[in-house]
Write a structure and sequence with these properties.
Layout lengths: L1 H26 L10 H8 L21 H15 L18 H20 L10 H5 L12
Helix pairs in contact: 2-3
């Protein structure tokens, strides 16, 4: 009987150690810092197409020609900042510029586009996106948190 208790004890101990190793290895992995919709935002702000045939009051987005394009870009912003539409928009009038967050977003979009065009325009260079700094928070995170 004593041998069975010892075997059970060591079996449980080994199981706990293995689980702890698995969990700690997952915690030490570098987090994926690429948002699902980030490429949609990058594509539109760096677009060579400066026309928009869809949407109202688009001042910095470029090459928007469909509802789907615009929604994917907006999803990129909401994902990157961890916010909903009403963070930047008056949801009764999406074209309105009344919210400072929308005006700030335009400044930030121009900044990201300038960084990407001026400094990251080489082959195989990753582009900066809103998610690069914000990582799901409305206030940018300055350090990668683990």
């Amino acid at each position: 009987m004593k041998m069975n208790k010892t075997a059970v004890f060591y079996g449980i101990l080994i199981t706990i150690i293995v689980l702890a190793l698995i969990i700690s290895s997952d915690l030490n992995k570098t987090p994926d810092l690429k948002a699902k919709y980030a490429d949609f935002v990058t594509e539109q702000i760096l677009s060579q197409d400066t026309t928009n045939t869809f949407g109202d009051n688009l001042k910095v987005l470029r090459g928007i020609h469909s509802r789907n394009q615009l929604l994917n870009v907006m999803r990129g912003f909401t994902e990157a900042l961890g916010v909903k539409c009403d963070f930047c928009h008056n949801t009764d009038n999406f074209a309105s510029d009344e919210k400072i967050q929308k005006r700030t977003a335009r400044v930030m979009i121009r900044m990201v586009a300038d960084i990407d065009r001026s400094y990251l325009d080489g082959p195989r260079m990753e582009k900066v996106t809103c998610f690069t700094c914000h990582r799901g928070a409305s206030i940018p995170k300055l350090v990668v948190e683990r």
